[in-house]
Amino acid sequence: MLGDTEPERDCVHCLLVASRVGSNVLFERFYKLRGETTTDSERTTWRRAFHAASSPTLGSAVEEEPYVANHRSHTIVWTTLGGLVLFIAGSGIYDELSLAEILRSVVGLLKTTTKSKAPTEMLFQANLGKFCLTADELLYAGHVEMLDKDAISRHVKLKTAKEKA
Prior knowledge:
The zeta subunit may be involved in regulating the coat assembly and, hence, the rate of biosynthetic protein transport due to its association-dissociation properties with the coatomer complex. By secondary structure, this protein is of the alpha+beta class. The protein has 5 helices and 7 strands, in the order ββαβββαααββα. Helix 2 (96-114) runs antiparallel to helix 4 (128-138) and helix 4 (128-138) crosses helix 5 (149-156). The longest helix is centred in the middle third of the chain and has 19 residues, at 96-114. The chain is globular. The termini are far apart.
């Protein structure tokens, strides 16, 4: 039944951006309960789960098409964009549909921050600081703050809705 899940499990657990070739991790953010930290072992487990989810179809993956996999009781959604692979994992109310919507917003934010429709690894790294700010506006403590890329861009620039972005 709806609402029977544990509240601490209703969250996004991880957002990760990797290079498409070589699978180098370029950005990762883990979301845990307040005061908890993610161990190296947990990070490795997530990375392996993401690799296992994407490796069979990565070569033939369609740009910006969401792909879904499961890892234990968590849902993984991943997609490709230019030279990047984006992963997000969640559980509870963050099912494949909501994770795909969040990932769609991440794709839009990546295009905006890199000013490219197909960002490369080098272009992403050049704009990493700006992407970190936008990712923090999108997700806070494993929960969605806002999905509108224009609103997020205004927040990052510290402008109100009345001011031009």
